[in-house]
From TrEMBL:
Domain ABC transporter: 4-229
Record-stated family: Belongs to the ABC transporter superfamily. Macrolide exporter (TC 3.A.1.122) family.
Keyword Transferase: no
GO cellular component, one term: membrane protein complex
Pfam families, per database record: ABC_tran
InterPro entries: AAA+_ATPase (IPR003593), ABC_transporter-like_ATP-bd (IPR003439), ABC_transporter-like_CS (IPR017871), MacB-like_ATP-bd (IPR017911), P-loop_NTPase (IPR027417)
GO molecular function: ATP binding; ATP hydrolysis activity; transmembrane transporter activity
Domain of life: Bacteria
Organism: Rhodalgimonas zhirmunskyi
Keyword annotations of the record: ATP-binding, Cell inner membrane, Cell membrane, Membrane, Nucleotide-binding, Transport
Annotated protein name in UniProt: ABC transporter ATP-binding protein
Length: 229
């Protein structure tokens, strides 16, 4: 029941004197169905790992398996299919289409997904049913992020990747968004990986991976998971 098995993963951006070693040999297992928080200072390599596991970027060396399939050896076509069928993304900025309602933003994804849920169901899961027909500009930041989460889960991905999902929100609104992610994890059984530099986010995690300078310093299982505060 391991979703990701990562061994000796490296990533170098650029070459020669300008080379940046973003990942310096990462080993980690991500159990299926957990909420895993990647915590560490800015520039420590968290997003780089997330992007490689999510099929948005390629590793320079090492291995990364998803459910036993080697991501680092996939063709571009297979990686695109993996991204489309198995994983969802939520970013700091919501990237909603301004000319479409919340419902229509989610529908854009369900129209091309392999096994989508109903857009209304996705919006219900994030607690936004009553705002389905609002446009992004009519919604608060927290509500826009919940639409982005609904869009990401509507294709029923096995894994939901969130890169600083509360980074643009005040702390109260951020907590509510983390609660939505927890609800999604519980309702859909999806593995949720969250990148953050905010230590408070770690309280809601099953497992916290501490990053520093391109490497994992510590992995801590959280036996006493609680609501974000
Ligand atoms: P974090 O998510 O922990 O803030 P990142 O994974 O974004 O860290 O970045 C790790 C390091 O890699 C940083 O030094 C960053 O500047 C560098 N980096 C990230 N993306 C690129 C890129 N596309 N080109 C060059 N350097 C990059
Ligand atoms: P939050 O504290 O969650 O960020 P806000 O205080 O920004 O929320 O907004 C509170 C409520 O007002 C939200 O339900 C939102 O939908 C509504 N709202 C905010 N801005 C607008 C707007 N420009 N037009 C219509 N409704 C809005």
């Amino acid at each position: 029941e391991i979703a990701y098995e990562v061994r000796g993963l490296t990533k170098v951006y650029g070459e020669g004197a300008a080379a940046v070693h973003a990942l310096r040999g990462v080993d980690v297992d991500v159990p299926r169905g957990e909420i895993v928080v990647l915590l560490g200072p800015s520039g420590s390599g968290k997003s780089t790992l997330l992007n490689i596991l999510g099929g948005l970027d390629r590793a320079s060396g090492g291995t990364a398996q998803f459910e036993g399939r080697e991501l680092t050896e996939m063709s571009d076509t297979d990686l695109t299919r993996y991204r489309r069928d198995h994983v969802g993304f939520v970013f700091q900025f919501y990237n909603l289409m301004p000319s479409l309602t919340a419902y229509e933003n989610v529908e854009l994804v369900t129209e091309i997904a392999r096994d989508p849920m109903d857009p209304g169901e996705a919006l219900r899961l994030v607690g936004l049913s009553e705002r389905s027909h609002h446009f992004p500009a009519q919604l608060s930041g927290g509500e826009q992020q919940r639409v982005a989460i609904a869009r990401a889960i509507a294709k029923q991905p096995e894994v939901l990747f969130c890169d600083e999902p509360t980074g643009a929100l005040d702390s109260t609104t951020g907590r509510a968004v983390l609660e939505v992610l927890r609800h999604v994890n519980e309702e859909l059984g999806a593995t949720v990986m969250i990148v953050t530099h905010a230590a408070a986010t770690a309280q809601m995690a099953d497992r916290v991976i501490h990053f520093a300078d391109g490497a994992i310093r510590d992995v801590i299982e959280n036996k006493d998971k609680r609501a974000p505060s």
